Amino acid sequence: MKIVINSKNYNASEKLKETIEKKFAKLDKYFSNEITANVMTLREKGKYKVEATINTKGTIFRAEVLAEDPYEGVDRVVEKLSRQMSKFKTKLQRKYKDHKDFAFAELPETEEDQDDIQVVRKKRFDLVPMTVDEAVVQMELLEHNFFVFLNMETDSVGVVYKRNDNDYGLLETAY
User: How far apart are the C-alpha atoms of 51 and 65, rounded to whole Å?
Assistant: First the structure.
């Protein structure tokens, strides 16, 4: 696995980068060498945020942790990613049974119940063409934290959402 390390709002030390490489090497046995892990360390308000994304063909593993110490954050992110992989091992095996990117035999079994995912509610609605600004206003009027719409500017489905920092985000679709 290739590991790409970035930092924001401070310069990560070489020791921290070496620790990230060492900790993520534990996850290396689950994937082929062609997989890339992106690790971002940020300093926010005196705390450290560690974000990690492993993008395989068709599945994205992502974990994010806020910690007092960046080393603690790295440990907790690796734990979260391992737990995700173990929890969904059976489902991933069904989806990627002959896929060379995953080494399923290496994944530990989880103690959690592996019931099938159950959708408890379905909702259907018509997509209304509108601009991004109009979609944000509509989302706020509905008091939701996301809103799906047909983007007039790109003629594709979009999703606006409220971020944790109270700004807005836009997800654009492509297929």
Answer: 7
Collect all residues with Cβ–Cβ distance below 8 Å to 164 and sequence separation of at least 6: none
Q: What is the Cα–Cα distance from 129 to 126, expressed in whole angstroms?
A: 10
The total of other beta-carbon atoms located within 10 Å of residue 100's CB is 10
d(C-alpha 6, C-alpha 80), whole Å: 19
pLDDT digits over 97-118, tens only?
655 555 544 445 555 545 567 8
Q: What sign results for the dihedral spanned by CA atoms 37, 43, 45, 48? A: positive
Contact residues for 153 (Cβ-Cβ < 8 A; gap 6+): 131, 132
Q: What are phi and psi of 4, to 5 degrees?
A: -105, 120
Q: How far apart are CA 140 and CA 161, in angstroms?
A: 10
Strand 146-151 to strand 168-172: parallel, antiparallel, or no bridges (unpaired)?
A: unpaired
Residue-averaged pLDDT of the chain: 83
The Cα-based distances of 61 to 31, 139, 153, 164, 170 in angstroms read 12, 28, 31, 20, 21
